[in-house]
Design brief:
Order of helices and strands: HHHHEEEEE
InterPro entries: Membrane_assoc_protease (IPR052165), NA-bd_OB-fold (IPR012340), NfeD-like_C (IPR002810)
Largest sheet: 5 strands, mixed
Membrane topology: Multi-pass membrane protein
GO cellular component, one term: plasma membrane
Strand content: 15-25%
Keywords: Membrane, Transmembrane, Transmembrane helix
Number of strands: 5
Strand order of the largest sheet: 1-4-5-3-2
Protein name: NfeD-like C-terminal domain-containing protein
Radius of gyration: 29 Å
Structural class: alpha+beta
């Protein structure tokens, strides 16, 4: 005979499994098992077949509901290029730290000294960053 606390133990085990394999799937299964435990606490004569069916329905509803709700929410941020640092600088204006000679030069951008590529220009010239290739920033005269 399955008792309410069996479902709660399953809920705890599934919750613990979520910490090892994160992704929120086991979290929802854990919640479904806990709810079946509460249902069995309220209706102690609930047959095991109905308990399993209730668990399956709750788990499917929770997983499907989560997928449906998360699909519609677009995650926007004020820093869309956070992990692509060079892309953050495209379109910005900067002053050359040194001259561009034979197509290569240096510019102080943010907290670092960057290699820039563009037409030969003297130090102190204002340039616009128009592209990036790895850590090389492509510039043109502003």
């Amino acid at each position: 005979m399955i008792e309410f606390w069996h479902w709660w133990v399953l809920a705890v085990l599934l919750g613990a499994l979520e910490t090892v394999a994160p992704g929120a799937a086991f979290l929802w299964l854990s919640g479904a098992a806990a709810l079946v435990g509460f249902a069995l606490l309220i209706w102690p004569s609930l047959p095991w077949e109905h308990q399993g069916l209730l668990f399956a329905l709750l788990a499917i509803a929770a997983l499907a509901g989560t997928r449906f709700l998360s699909r519609g929410s677009a995650h926007t941020t004020h820093t869309p290029h956070l992990n692509r640092r060079t892309a953050q600088y495209i379109g910005t204006l900067h002053t050359l730290d040194g001259p561009i000679v034979n197509g290569r030069g240096r510019a102080q951008i943010g907290d670092g000294l960057w290699t820039v590529e563009g037409p030969d220009l003297p130090a102190g010239t204002r340039v616009r960053i128009v592209g990036a290739e790895g850590t090389l920033l492509k510039v043109e005269k502003a």
